[in-house]
Amino acid sequence: MDAVMFEKPSEIIAVDRRSTDGTIAILRRYGVRILVDNVGSLGFSRQLGTKAARNDYVAFVDSDTVLTPGCIRTMIHDIKSNGWVGAQATIRSAEDVSYWQRMERDRSAQFCLKGDRSAQFYRTGEPRTSFIGTSGETTSFIGTSATMFKRNILLSCPFDPMMRESYEDTDINRRLIRKGYRLGVSDAIAYHYDRREFSAFVKQRINRGIGTVRMAMKYHERWQLLSPLIIPFSLTIRNLASSRMKYVPFWTADGVARFIGILLGISKVRRENNARQC
């Protein structure tokens, strides 16, 4: 919050998702406008803040992300100069004190092909937590941890409140690209704190598994249910075969947690559909 306040935005809106850790008390000390998401949905939370905002641009900053000075100003500049409707800051790792953080930082490099620019970036540059593209480039996907959008675009193409646990960013990206809008990676820098503890890492992956189910059902693409299982387990086998043992616990836990999330997601979606039919 200190980093956000340093940017001196014209308004700050904090959306609390029914927290129980004293978050609201902390926010009140900063004097920011507080909204409460009683639905418990990431998609609903982001749209709630968007509707309440009064400016032409809306920035989303997650609680585990820290902006660097000038971040908001740079994102707005990059959106205007590149004809984008949204831009994410270049995300870098804030700390790597635990195994799970180090592996999260390194994981994208395993997707890179020999000679690929992104592979070189991860070997020689300051690592980002996820690869979405090189700063200054137009891309088909941006996250929402430190991101700026044109507000009018999100009012006409809103976040889906049914994307409760995760992938509200994947869904909004997909719909914006389908409409012909352009997204990009800003030169602005933000630092992200990855999950330090194993329990937090597993919870995140389970939520992504649930999000996968919601995406698969929404777009009638059942094959999506296989992708988050094939990738981690194939990488586990590949790392075993090449004796890169340090990656094996990460990808094994990733795959198992996503599989649990997919099972939970199927059950959740079925219950929600049955409730709507009653």
Please tell me about this protein's structure.
The chain is α/β, with parallel strands linked by helices. It has helices at 2-6, 23-30, 42-52, 71-82, 99-106, 117-124, 151-156, 168-178, 198-218, 227-241, 248-277; strands spanning 13-16, 33-36, 57-61, 65-67, 86-93, 138-139, 146-150, 183-192. β1 (13-16), α2 and β2 form a beta-alpha-beta unit. α9 (198-218) crosses α11 and α10 (227-241) packs antiparallel against α11 (248-277). The chain is globular. Mean pLDDT is 87; it is low at 112-131.
Task: Briefly say what this structure is.
The protein has helices at residues 2-6, 23-30, 42-52, 71-82, 99-106, 117-124, 151-156, 168-178, 198-218, 227-241, 248-277, and strands spanning 13-16, 33-36, 57-61, 65-67, 86-93, 138-139, 146-150, 183-192. The protein is α/β, with parallel strands linked by helices and 278 residues long.
Q: Mind sketching the topology for me?
A:
Elements: H1 2-6, E1 13-16, H2 23-30, E2 33-36, H3 42-52, E3 57-61, E4 65-67, H4 71-82, E5 86-93, H5 99-106, H6 117-124, E6 138-139, E7 146-150, H7 151-156, H8 168-178, E8 183-192, H9 198-218, H10 227-241, H11 248-277
Parallel strand pairs: 1-2, 5-8
Antiparallel strand pairs: 3-7, 4-8, 5-7, 6-8
- Contiguous low-pLDDT stretches (5 residues minimum) are 112-131
Radius of gyration based on Cα positions: 19 Å
CATH topology of the largest domain: Spore Coat Polysaccharide Biosynthesis Protein SpsA, Chain A
Strand content: 5-15%
